[in-house]
Amino acid sequence: MSKYLVIMEPTATGYSAYPPDLPGCATTGRSQAEVEANMKEAIQLHLEGLESGGQPVPPPRTIATYVEVAA
User: Is 28 in contact with 17 (CB distance < 8 Å)?
Assistant: First the structure.
């Protein structure tokens, strides 16, 4: 089992999400919970597509952190 970093961004109608380590994989949802559930399914389908196409599956590499700055 692998863990991929997922970026979620608010949109006018909910949220969009993508994993930086899996180019071309993205999804949307009306809530954070919905976009997270959709992202799990999208990642699984994306990985299955890569494997069935004989392409390598990129390992999770991206990390994230928050940096505080004076506003």
Answer: yes
Spell out the per-residue pLDDT of the chain, length 71, in tens: 899 999 999 999 999 999 999 999 999 999 999 999 999 999 999 999 999 999 999 999 999 999 999 98
| Among 56, 21, 59, 17, CA closest to 38 | 17
Q: Are 23 and 15 in contact (CB under 8 A)?
A: no
Question: Which residue matches tokens 């799990």?
Answer: 40
Neighbouring residues of 64: CB distance < 8 A, sequence distance ≥ 6: 5
Q: How many domains does the chain have?
A: 1
Distance, in Å, from the CA atom of 67 to the CA atom of 71, rounded to the nearest integer, reads 12
Domain containing 38 equals 1-71
